[in-house]
Amino acid sequence: xxxxxxxxxxxxxxxxxxxxxxxxxxxxxxxxxxxxxxxxxxxxxxxxxxxxxxxxxxxxxxxxxxxxxxxxxxxxxxxxxxxxxxxxxxxxxxxxxxxxxxxxxxxxxxxxxxxxxxxxxxxxxxxxxxxxxxxxxxxxxxxxxxxxxxxxxxxxxxxxxxxxxxxxxxxxxxxxxxxxxxxxxxxxxxxxxxxxxxxxxxxxxxxxxxxxxxxxxxxxxxxxxxxxxxxxxxxxxxxxxxxxxxxxxxxxxxxxxxxxxxxxxxxxxxxxxxxxxxxxxxxxxxxxxxxx
Length: 292
Fold this sequence. Notes:
The chain is of the alpha+beta class. The chain is about 25% helix and about 30% strand.
């Protein structure tokens, strides 16, 4: 079941003649790393600087032009629904500046990131890219800038950076997504045969590179860490119909990047704080003061 609090004709979904920017906020998780706080509340309502994480995300994106949001719910779903109804009245006569918020209900089953986005598809305008953001992430991204990085011919843009991690996304020189590698197990996932089954693969982690050898040819690719923040074109929903109800969005990207146009956007000064853990929750207030 999907719930919307405000129904209106898509033709009215405009500001100054332009479509309002739209975003998906993933807020359905169990928040197990935030126990015992999440024994009685969803992680979306855990507070930083006396403000729920959900409000921090919505208000910051709203300041940068986003006015249409879909929030998925599962754990203590009704608490999120009640908070949204109270905080963001959907009656324009009450508050004409209130963002339009839709709830995608996953109380029956958690659908992961890909499945959650697929279920929420009916809420999105088909001609406007969708910003994907986790409710428990704080960052220093200029989202007006990031929205401009998603060119009309691109199907998705993944925000990446150079940082040490166990798993990297693999990009060619044009920053097109080619695959994924686990640096500990050396497992490579890719729809491209020469990359999936190379004769040899050499990691150069100091320079964030991987060299793939196949049939006497060596190709060099770039390694970048994914931030979890991405921009998604609604035209990909058609391709998602081939996927099950539950799947991870990265699985979708890695299985389809050979027939879609998925690119990386490098931001070397990217700062991201995962507030999904108790220890980082304590750092969040300072992070906010320094980055936002």
